Amino acid sequence: MTYTTLSLTLIFVLIPLILSKTLHLSLEKDTIIATIRSIIQLLIVGYVLKFVFDSDSFIYIFFMITLMIVAATLNARQKGRAIKGITWKIALTLIVVEVVTQGILLGLQIVPATAQYIIPISGMLIGNSMVLSILFLNRFTAEVESNKDSIELVLSLGGTPQQAIHTQLKNAIRASLIPTIESQKTIGLVQLPGVMSGQIIGGADPVVAVQFQILIIFALLTTASISSILIGMLSYPTLFNERMQFIKNATHK
Which element (helix H / strand E) includes 128? Predict the structure, then answer.
């Protein structure tokens, strides 16, 4: 694909701009900013990855993964700023996800220990973990805000903070996991995932592409579970003080 051909794909940006303007959605500015940022960021990443792949140095691999985790943490924390220490909680969650998944993939020699495999897979898993963290934080803060009275009721009856927040925590975890689980139910029937499609377009054997995609979706399921549960377990204690009393404004921005 040439840059001239690529420029024609801006038609896909023009369509939502026209629709937003016509329906007065006021999304034109955000759409343009998102488009410009995605072009610049992806082009820069493309050249950086070419350099990293050519060098195949673990120092550069570590640097790229660290950069991914930092960027994902800064983005996800916007949805949970009211939760004390949310930045390090998200960062720790992303690190655990990366260590567990890559530990399994590389430790069992499922994929080669090269930049060509480690960085793209890490990007997909960290990105998914970031989205799951955002989904969890959105739902969790909403659950807490709408159930303050029931939380305080459980505490007044002698319940522990864990018992008081159990229902809200469980609902938030379930809600954040549902999109991942539901998408896997129809994968291959309703949608052909990006990894699989990219390999097929690149000339890979469809069966090999499917095998690699299965690896990814299974890893994403683990990523989703760890992300939602860990960020939940790290977050809920900050809603209570040392006397096990509920802090009413703990999730209020």
Answer: helix 115-146
Residue 251 lies in a domain: no
- pLDDT tens for 10-53 read 899 999 999 999 999 899 999 999 999 988 988 888 888 888 88
Residues 243 and 151: beta-carbon distance below 8 Å: no
Strand partners, 240: 246
Find tokens 């640097």 and name the residue: 63
CB-hemisphere CA count at 13 Å for 214?
Answer: 7
Calculate the CA dihedral of residues 71, 75, 77, 82 and round it to 10 degrees. Answer: 150
Same structural domain, 156 and 223: yes
Q: pLDDT tens digits for 118-174?
A: 998 999 899 989 989 888 988 998 888 888 888 888 888 888 888 998 999 999 999
Assess if residue 148 is contained within a domain.
yes
- What angle (nearest 5°) sits at the alpha carbon of residue 142, between those of residues 138 and 147? 155
Domain containing 6 equals 1-55
The verdict on 68 and 184 lying in the same domain is yes
Q: Are residues 143 and 28 in the same domain?
A: no
Identify the domain boundary among 55, 74, 91: 55
Q: Tell me which residue has tokens 């204690």.
A: 237
Helices (H), 56-114: 58-76, 86-107
Do both 76 and 46 map to the same domain?
A: no
Report pLDDT digits (tens) over 188-204: 666 666 666 677 666 77
